[in-house]
């Protein structure tokens, strides 16, 4: 008897939604348009497109986590924050694939990039804004994209994820508002906030949910920092210390970004315990 691949599976999708229809695979799989004949340009395009898709999911999860924290619903927020950390683990793995490209291979198509650069990713910027590393001056970089600019401006008008967490911290410990209004600049470490986190870490059993929230935030930043570090290493391995295609100093700029602390008090408190 001849076996068939169907085994009762539906085979005719002329009038029904298929797997490819649901996932909109046709536009996705036809969105790669290399501008040169270089073999490795396809790798470069796919790696960055998939990274943007993962960032799209990270934004979705961070927005929901912020809403849950603001509403005092920490258990769902923990799941979402863990998911974002694992998203950045996936983004880290993507650098491993890109590092299979040599400097000679990248040079073959680099002129085709023009002035385009990952520095111009509005989704990456939105993630940074959501996490609290804000710089309103960078909005002009996205002025040519009305929708992206509107999303970034709207984010600057909201408290960051960390500010929402800090407000909950203050509420649970019986303190006044410590988070402040939504800011358009990067969050700066504050001694009074570090003192609150120290109170939590010195008695985890008494403040277990806030203690777990703190560790979820640290875990998230840990993976985010690894992503940044791997970005620096990949760029240095492929282009050395050349300027970036978008005009930044390349490795120099990326190394500076390694110094950024998203949730500084949560790192500084460790030395005070």
Please tell me the CATH architecture by its name: Up-down Bundle
Helical coverage, percent range: 55-70%
Average pLDDT level: 92
Number of separate helices: 12
The topology string of helices and strands comes to: HHHHHHHHHHHH
Distance between the termini: 72 Å
Tell me the radius of gyration: 22 Å
In terms of structural class, how would the helical and strand content be classed? mainly alpha
Task: Quickly count the domains.
Answer: 1
CATH topology, by name, is Methane Monooxygenase Hydroxylase, Chain G, domain 1
Explain this structure to me?
The chain is mainly α and 273 residues long. It has one domain (38-108, 122-271): Methane Monooxygenase Hydroxylase, Chain G, domain 1, CATH 1.20.58.480. 58% of the residues lie in helices and 0% in strands. The protein has 12 helices and no strands. The protein has helices spanning 19-23, 25-29, 41-70, 74-98, 103-107, 122-131, 146-156, 161-172, 191-202, 208-239, 251-257, 264-268. α6 packs parallel to α7. The longest helix is centred in the last third of the chain and has 32 residues, at 208-239. The model has no long low-confidence stretch (mean pLDDT 92).
Would you spell out the secondary-structure blueprint of this structure?
Blueprint: H1 19-23, H2 25-29, H3 41-70, H4 74-98, H5 103-107, H6 122-131, H7 146-156, H8 161-172, H9 191-202, H10 208-239, H11 251-257, H12 264-268
């Amino acid at each position: 008897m001849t076996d068939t691949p169907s085994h009762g599976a539906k085979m005719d999708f002329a009038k029904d939604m298929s797997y490819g229809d649901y996932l909109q695979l046709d536009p996705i799989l036809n969105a790669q348009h290399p501008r040169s004949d270089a073999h490795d340009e396809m790798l470069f395009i796919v790696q960055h497109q998939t990274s943007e898709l993962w960032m799209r999911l990270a934004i979705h999860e961070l927005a929901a986590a912020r809403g849950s924290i603001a509403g005092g619903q920490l258990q769902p927020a923990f799941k979402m924050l863990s998911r974002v950390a694992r998203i950045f683990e996936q983004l880290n793995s993507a650098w491993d694939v890109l590092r299979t490209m040599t400097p000679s291979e990248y040079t073959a198509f680099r002129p085709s990039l023009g002035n385009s650069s990952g520095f111009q990713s509005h989704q990456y910027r939105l993630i940074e804004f959501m996490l609290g590393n804000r710089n309103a001056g960078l909005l002009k970089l996205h002025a040519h994209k009305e929708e992206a600019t509107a999303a970034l401006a709207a984010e600057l008008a909201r408290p960051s994820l960390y500010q929402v967490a800090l407000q909950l911290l203050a509420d649970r410990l019986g303190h006044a508002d410590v988070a402040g209004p939504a800011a358009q600049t990067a969050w700066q470490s504050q001694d009074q906030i570090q003192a609150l986190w120290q109170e939590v870490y010195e008695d985890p059993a008494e403040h277990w949910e806030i203690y777990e929230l703190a560790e979820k935030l640290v875990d998230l930043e840990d993976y985010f920092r690894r992503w940044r570090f791997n970005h620096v290493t990949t760029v240095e391995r492929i282009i050395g210390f050349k300027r970036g295609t978008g005009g930044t100093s390349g490795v120099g700029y990326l190394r500076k970004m390694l110094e950024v602390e998203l949730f500084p008090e949560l790192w500084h408190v460790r030395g005070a315990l």
